[in-house]
Give the backbone structure.
Amino acid sequence: MPPALASREYKLMLRAAGFAGSEAALIAQVAAFWRDFSDAVAGHGIATDGAFIRSKERPVTFYDTADRHLNNKDVLFRDYVFRVRSRADGTAKVTLKYRHPDRLVAGDRDLTATKKLLKKREIKFERDIKPVQRRMRSLYSYSGSGRTKDTLSVDTVDGIVALFPDLGKQLDVTLDEPVAPVSGFTARELVLEGCRISLSGRQVAECAVVIWYDRSANPTTPVVAEFSFRHPRKHATDPRFTATEARVACRAFHAALDLDDWAATTQQTKTAYVYAMS
């Protein structure tokens, strides 16, 4: 049996150019987007509340081999993604994610992180819902994560396998194969949170806008923008997601897709953007 689903997250890429400028200008534009979105879903009887505020900022880097053994481009879906979010204290949050359109396949992995090397370890099983040619496509993602205890140094596949041991059984590559930042790219990720969508009397979806800047380029010109909302199952005693809530979420998602001034329905996802730069 696959692990219990922790959340369903709807993701939509936005027109990044619309959020260029200072951080004050960015927040103003995100507020304008939220007003348009709220007006659109109100027409479907869906309530929203809150205001977006700056939540966190962090550098994000993806690591892979030169032949992309982790993120296999020879199949119709992406396989593994290894991501590092560096912290000011020199440590980092590392995440290994496995993705597949089949729930049973996605959950059939051991992504347990090494206790000796990582603290605050966490496992998540999620369903991501994204538009493909304006149709909803689901992708299940199973991820293990943790925070390094010391400064992170990952130079070979073996360095990643040391953090997530089962990965070594899944890859057809020698452990001394070098790894490096994908496309030589590190994003400066800015996250804004604070808004919610009411899906039912008991369940809300938590919203986020994620803006990526090229850390080595213009600090006020975003390269990727994403709007997402998720409704989580916070703990084991929570009621399971219902079809009624899913239908409301779907209506909200399609309303966002129809915001032509904001939605970038052909824009690549954040991960795909990084790999396409190669």
